[in-house]
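[Automated response] Your request has been received and processed.

Submitted sequence:
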Amino acid sequence: MTEFLVSGRYIDSAHPAVIEFARINSTGKTEAERAVSLYYAVRDGIRYNPFLDFSDDAVFRASSCLAAGQGFCIGKAALLAACARSEGIAARVGFADVKNHLTTPALRARMGTDLFVYHGFTELLLEGKWLKATPAFNLALCQRFRVKPLEFDGREDSIFHAFDEEDRRHMEYLRDRGSHADVPVAEIMQAFRDTYPVLYGLGREAAKESFG
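Generated structure:
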């Protein structure tokens, strides 16, 4: 259990900025209440952006995501896990391949597919049960694209909705990639190189794109 409470290379819960962010945003008397408050702080305080340089391992690191004020699903999941650990709540990251039926034309053009491999989420140990929490899409983004924002109550899993607010097919979970004490960046980078050669090959140029 210790591995889910200590600081890691990417879930760097000992980073001063992460500790401070967690301290400010952790409210409530119980672990579940504090976890919920941290979830919303990360969900809405950090803007979702998939146009990043995935050859730079900083985009997978919690403290870097916090410093940038933006990140994609893995960076934000790592940040939530890091915040939880800094508050004494056991946390890890989980991954799955998902099909996004509502991906934007620009993102699909760059990715060459609507399949998102290694979609990341956080898993929090609350009241003896591991719960999934997905802080990826911030509220403003959800409102813009008419997607139901994901809520988290500290009692049940929070994973992507199958349909959006207009009853259109949204997210479809295809493959479970397992849970990890820290972000397995090397294998994720390899999967991204294989699956998204155009987007991955953009390197720093990818960050010039805008999303949401």
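Summary generated for your ticket: The chain has eight helices and six strands. The first strand starts at residue 47 and ends at 48.
If you did not submit this request, please reply to this message.
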